[in-house]
Amino acid sequence: MEPPAAPGPERLFDSHRLPTDGFLLLALLLYAPVGLCLLVLRVFIGVHVFLVSCALPDSVVRRFIVRVMCSVLGLLVRQSDPRLRGAGTRVFIANHVTPFDHNVVSLLTSCNTPALSGAPGFICWSRGFMELGVTGSRAELVDSLKEYSAHQGNPPLLLFPEEAATNGRAGLLRFSSWPFSILDEVQPVALQVRRPLVAVSVADSSWITELLWTFFVPFTVYQVRWMPSVPRQADERSEDFALRVQELLAMELGVVSTRITAADRTEHMKRLRHTARLPFAPALSQRPAARPRVPPSLPGGAPEDVRVVAMAQQVKEVLPHVPLEVIKTDLVQTNCVDTTIANLLEGRVPFFPESKEAEDLPAPSTSQAAAASGIQGSVAAPSSKPATKQFAKSPVERHLSLQERKRALYDYARRRFAEKHGAARAGGSP
Length: 430
Fold this sequence. Notes:
Blueprint: H1 9-12, H2 22-55, H3 60-72, E1 75-80, E2 91-94, H4 101-106, E3 113-114, H5 122-126, E4 129-130, H6 138-150, E5 157-159, E6 171-172, E7 185-194, H7 207-216, E8 220-226, E9 230-231, H8 238-253, E10 256-257, H9 262-277, H10 281-286, H11 303-318, H12 324-334, H13 337-346, H14 355-360, H15 368-373, H16 395-428
Parallel strand pairs: 1-8, 2-5, 2-7, 3-4, 6-10
Antiparallel strand pairs: 7-8, 7-9
Helix pairs in contact: 2-3, 2-7, 11-12, 11-13, 12-13
Subcellular location: Endoplasmic reticulum membrane; Lipid droplet
Membrane topology: Peripheral membrane protein
Family: Belongs to the AUP1 family.
């Protein structure tokens, strides 16, 4: 049996909070008045939970009281194999699903999570993060955490090597190696989160927004599964150690271990925001992909090849000067027509324009040196304003100039597509 294919970034992160199913959306609308009442009530109760957690010292009694009060807020925490919890291990390694994963685990056992981002201060402390006072490189952070773990009186560390939250349904982000450089033994912790009606977490959503949605929904169930400790093998590098723990954690969760990093996630969200602003993107996304034109070289190709060829033809109609093989190669990576067009327009995918199609296009408004270098692969169509002869000093001016060139190219491609299909219909009419 072949292993499941690695999911793309679009399957690891939810970009929409509300459900797409009509029945669930109707149920959410009917529940909304109750949810708003719960939200207001739970905000006041949440203040008391925070005050109690600050007043009581860290102990089993405090964790029990706060856990019961959190259940009133709709946070239900369950655990399996509690006998494996913290069996002499000083570093916990967990997958990341919501901004409150460290708070949930701290309701079960004493642990600290260092603050890796955000300004230190009251907000950082109130969210339950530990401030180390280290603002330098990761090497300094690792040294500080090694020194922290050397003191047996300090609670264990809870680290999230993914460094970004996923939806927890499809796969794990690639683990960073620095958490596995602290000690030679770690304990994986598998987290699964479920809630009705809405998504558990949405990419690029702030922790305040996630907290309000947690108070709005009737309940959110956190399932914590403690796994046996994993020691480092002899002469095993930190990168290999991280990959081995990632595979074990993925098997426990029933998901795929991917090579997508937190940086890839950031780039994916930038592309989503960019394609959402493109004027021609809705027309491309709504264009039917039926009756794809398969080239003779793929007479009986796989369904995936037919779909890629169909999307490549859509991109080719908009950007006729781009070689078809370059389009197909990028579509295999992005699996999205809009994202591929954005990559080609912004020069993320270098290519040399096809001579025949390039001659049909108007004269480019950019310099010939940029087109010959292959970095800026697109040939810009003339806009209503003359091209800027000098490099704009202001980032706003450069952005507006880029948007004008893109808009002109889209307008030209749309006219060319309409003329092409209009001529074909006129020729086929009696």
